[in-house]
Each structure stands twice: as C-alpha cells, then as structure tokens.
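[step 3/7] fold_predict: job queued, chain A
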Amino acid sequence: MNSLHLAVTAAVICTAFSGSAIAQSSPDAMIADALRAAPPSILKTATVSDLAGNILREGPSDYTCFPAPDGIAGPMCMDSEWRRWMAAWMGGTPFTAERLAIAYMLAGDSPDGGASNIDPAATLPTADNEWIVEGPHMMLITPDPSVFDGIPTTINTDGPYVMWSGTPYVHLMVPVDKRPEQRSIPLQ
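[step 4/7] structure written:
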C-alpha cells in the first residue's frame, strides 16, 4: 500500500478517534500502545502511525499499528487490505476484500469500547445488539464470505464467530484469550 493510501486511511481513523487520550500522548507512548496489538512476528517490522496519520515509526512489513482510540477499540495492527476495510467501514461505503487478510488486536478492546456483533453502525450497547467487549483476538476477511458459513454468528460460543454477517464488513473474529468484564447495557 502506498503512503497516500495509508495517510487517507489514518485520516479516516483520526476523524472518528481524534479525542483519544492516546492521540494526545508522546510519540513513544503511542508507539508502545500501538504495538500492544502486534504478534511477535510483526512487532519489529510494522509501521506505527498515530491516529492523525503521522508515521511514528517506519517498518518494512505491510502491517501498520495504531494506538487505541478511546471508547471504541483497543490498539490494532492491520495489513493494507484491512486498512481498506477500515476506510470503507468508517466511511459507510461498500467493501469487498481482494484477498484473505488478517488484523491483530492482541491487547483486546478497551473497557469502555467494544462493538455490536450484528450492527456495524452501532455506537453503544443496547439490549438487542449483542454488544461485545472482546479480549485479545485476530480478525480475518476474505473475498468470499461464504467460507464463513457454518461458523457461529453469536458471541456466545467457545471459539471463532462471524461478526457483522450479511454486511459488506463481515469478518471472522478469532479470540485468543479470555474476554474481559463486559460493559453494562443502559436501561432503555
């Protein structure tokens, strides 16, 4: 992925997450936070960007790691295909993966974050949107989402599950450690 596309993706991420406390930290703190998402195999080779798209550390791999945005997720490491996915999801535009791709969130979601398992546009937990604050996990996208057929689509499973089934943003969630305490659901 060229630097222009990385900058555009980071700018989209920044627009949504610019209020983050990490976004206002020192470069060293942002790098340390971002790399909490990375597996050992890409820890030293990933590029690190702040949430405004400023490159904090160049790396030779296809992965770029970002610090945690407050109230949404934890730190994340995404390859170029996942960065395309992120830009589409954040912009509400259609997306079809061109190849199998893996993203890492090995620090898990932030305690005040998480996501609906069924509604890509949901911003808060409700009684009917299967809100999940996931622990350390990997995520997979594929050009043919039918390969996920037969995998559970509910968060109440022991193992991988399909998130956002039936949408352009469908992906496989692969938990790799236990889930943290879940957020309470506000009374409606």
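[step 5/7] annotate
The helical segments are 3-17, 27-35, 40-43, 80-91.
Strands lie at 47-49, 55-57, 64-66, 76-78, 101-105, 115-116, 131-132, 137-141, 161-163, 171-175.
exit 0
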